[in-house]
Amino acid sequence: MELSFVEWLRARVPAPAGVLLGIGDDAAVIAPVAGPIVVTSDLLIDGVHFLSAEHAPERIGHKALAVNLSDLAAMGASPRGAVLSVALPRAGAGGVPCDQLARRLVEGLLPLAERTGCPLVGGDTNVGSGPLVASITAWGEAPPQGVARRDAASVGDAVLVTGALGGSLLGKHLDFTPRLDEARLLVERYGVRAMMDITDGLAIDAQRMARASGVGIAIDVAAVPVDPAAHRRAAPTGRPALEHALGDGEDFELLFTLPIDAATRLLTDAPLACGVTRIGQVVSESGLWRVAGPSLHQSLVPLEPRGYEHA
Amino acid sequence: MELSFVEWLRARVPAPAGVLLGIGDDAAVIAPVAGPIVVTSDLLIDGVHFLSAEHAPERIGHKALAVNLSDLAAMGASPRGAVLSVALPRAGAGGVPCDQLARRLVEGLLPLAERTGCPLVGGDTNVGSGPLVASITAWGEAPPQGVARRDAASVGDAVLVTGALGGSLLGKHLDFTPRLDEARLLVERYGVRAMMDITDGLAIDAQRMARASGVGIAIDVAAVPVDPAAHRRAAPTGRPALEHALGDGEDFELLFTLPIDAATRLLTDAPLACGVTRIGQVVSESGLWRVAGPSLHQSLVPLEPRGYEHA
Which among A39, A81, A84 has the least Cβ separation from residue B83? Predict the structure, then answer.
């Protein structure tokens, strides 16, 4: 790391409890974590995951941490720390000079880091000629019940999502709050079977969950919760709002399955402010399906996943 | 991660013992680590830390992991795992198509990962328009004696380095082996006081150690082990080989201090194949000094650090 940035960071980010040695040495040292450690890493590139010409560095910093915390949430894990490595364009980005970019990224992620108990303990800053790149690795503690995997969906399970989907490009993809508390509650109180976060679109991610679990998922598309932003997107694109809900991606909502009785209990309790919707069922027929009639197994029609497929 | 790469990676990198859930879910899950966890992150950019036009992706992958392991070595830690996140240029790099870059980076780092017990457990691949960026976060287990910090140099300590310095640009900066075994031995058997790895050049890094420790470091420049590569560099640059040894950086050797009696014991035992050289002493006068005469404290001349200072 560049020296003056390290000094600023050491002063700005005092090492909290659990951080035995913070920013400034060759590596950070953190207190032992009880049980298995959950680790994730996500890298964001200007022009792909954000637009520095439109988005302030603080929002980009928030997103860089939030996408990682969303992955920890998807496992039911509790964050314990993160490191940030950046490639800074020599000429700056979005009118922000190079030497202010890293500080403003950090300022943007600190509120979320503090709120979620995820201290920034180190990282690396480098200057190059390319676009702004922010890479975060975050780790956390597995829940006592064991992590929620995406390959554990079981035939007969109900399929549910948190929140509403589609249109995240209008702002949610930058400003969302990762569903950490919601995920922990789902794991602890309702015995989540399979879980993942929706990054590439409900359809493509549901297909991934089905494939990983060796099952099929049938979605009642009429039940999919469509975000108002998906309707706003639909006007200029001319595509149905539902299509945006199924395929836009970067919703960072939770897609999960529960045994039917637990799903019923959850829908009755309604413990989550973000809302939970039952959108389908796990079936034995491999693949992704749309429920096209009143009788489930006689009315499965293939559902083509349309999501952002990483090139 | 892009799907076919994930599938390739899952087959290529079977989850070893200690990895409870490897590549393919939202996050990896690793077995509990005994004691404090040491974490480091380094990001490499094409054109800054390597040249894709000259260096094969395998060498770049090796370096990306090795620089992180060098940081763990500098703490005396034992690696336990790593994640790799990359920004891949859509047009490829160095004549290698985009869709082969990530695999070849991984092929390049796997031998080192296997040799050092540092499984690759996950990461993120993204395609953009900028240069190739490889970001690795690695973690490890602190030594039972506690980590070796850079701020623990004590007045009267001997200052030593492993190996030889300078000219790393001729190849060592890509192909070096991180001094993990050497560092552990120094911590376990000789009670290392302060330690760091040499990344920005001996002079600038020694100055950092001195500043962090609130002391001074006096270097007997005649004793500095000069790598043959520094001599080869000196011919075209017209600068003395010693200057290359003091300032080139990316040596990834260990700079450390020991109480005098431990230093004497180490130099007598000579347990390290890479060699160890005593190059100076920790003094009470703050700053970086050159020993310019036979009597230490009457002959300290300021030594100007010339190293690669991150912009």
Answer: A39
CB A258 within 8 A of CB A160: yes
Residues in chain A closer than 8 A to B3 (CB atoms): 309-310
8 Å CB contact of A27 and B75: yes
Tell me the C-alpha to C-alpha distance, in Å, between residue A133 and each of A39, A86, A87, A101, B60.
20, 5, 5, 11, 18
In what helix (H) or strand (E) does residue A308 lie, and over which residues does it extend? none
Summarize pLDDT for B104-152 with one digit per residue, the tens. Answer: 999 999 999 999 999 999 999 999 999 999 999 999 999 999 999 999 9
List the one residue out of B126, B243, B203 whose CA is nearest residue A47.
B126
Q: Please answer yes or no on whether A75 and B197 come within 8 Å at the CB atom.
A: no
Residues of A in contact with B251 (CB under 8 A): none
Can you name the residues that pair with B107 across neighbouring β-strands? none
Task: Please indicate if any CB of chain A lies within 8 Å of the CB of B90.
Answer: yes
Q: What does the DSSP 8-state code read for residue B23? A: B
pLDDT in tens, A106-149: 999 999 999 999 999 999 999 999 999 999 999 999 999 999 99
Could you give the CA distance from residue B26 to residue A182 in angstroms, rounded to a whole number?
16
Q: What is the pLDDT of residues A170-186, one digit of tens each?
A: 999 999 999 999 999 99
| Number of C-beta neighbours around residue A297 at 10 A | 12
User: What's the CA gap between A9 and A42, in Å, rounded?
Assistant: 21
Cα(A215)–Cα(A296) distance, rounded to whole angstroms?
A: 15
**Starting from the edge strand earliest in sequence, which strands make up the sheet with A287-291, in order?**
A194-197, A254-258, A158-162, A276-283, A216-219, A287-291, A300-302
Amino acid found at B19: V
- The candidate with the shortest Cα–Cα distance to A83, out of A105, A98, A52, is A105
- Tokens linked to B243: 């200057």
∠ CA A25-A30-A32 to the nearest 5 degrees?
150
- Say which DSSP state B216 is in: E
Q: Which residue type occupies B294?
A: P
Partner-chain contact A28 B43, CB within 8 Å: no
pLDDT digits (tens, 9 = 90+) for B15-26: 778 899 988 899
Q: Which of A203, A223, A206 is nearest to A215 (CA)?
A: A206
Measured from the Cβ of residue B144, the count of other Cβ atoms closer than 10 Å reads 10
Contacts of B120 in chain A (CB under 8 A): none
